[in-house]
Amino acid sequence: MSLDVTRTEPHSHEARRRLEHARTSRLAQLRALDETERSTDDHLLSAQKAAMKRVLGEIEEAFARIEDGTYGTCVGCAKPVPAERLEILPYTRHCVACQRRTA
After folding, report:
1. What is the pLDDT of residues 10-68, one digit of tens each?
2. What number of other Cβ atoms are within 10 A of residue 69's Cβ?
3. CA 66 to CA 60: how far, in whole Å?
4. Would you say 86 and 72 are in contact if contact means Cβ atoms under 8 Å apart?
5. Which long-range contacts (C-beta less than 8 Å, at least 24 apart) are formed by 38-43?
């Protein structure tokens, strides 16, 4: 087994674990919003629900990037996304500098 594979497998496992946690958390939040929405018709709740669905989509895209080997690479500049950023926001597609440019 090559050194690169040894480095990639634990990284991939940890990334999957963080993404699973993020997905589980967002799904629980979405269920809570669904229950709240039944009792009130609030535009803020609708916006929160849409944001949760968007993040869930980003999480699924991150799983796909793990599969195709591009996870952790910024889609803006093709440089590695710092590990600290991936720990905080495991589904991010951008490094901080590129994220600022897209915002």
Report:
1. 478 999 999 999 999 999 999 988 877 565 567 888 889 999 999 999 999 999 999 99
2. 10
3. 10
4. yes
5. none
Burial (0-12, 13-18, 19+ Cβ within 10 Å), 43: exposed
Count of alpha carbons within 13 angstroms of residue 43, beta-carbon side: 0
Provide mean pLDDT across the span 3-15. 56
Distances (CA, A) of 94 to 10, 34, 60, 61: 21, 30, 16, 13
Give all domains of the chain, ordered by start, each with its CATH number. Answer: 3-102 (1.20.120.910)
| Residue recorded with tokens 């269920």 | 31
CA distances from 99 to 10, 88, 92, 95 (A): 26, 14, 9, 6
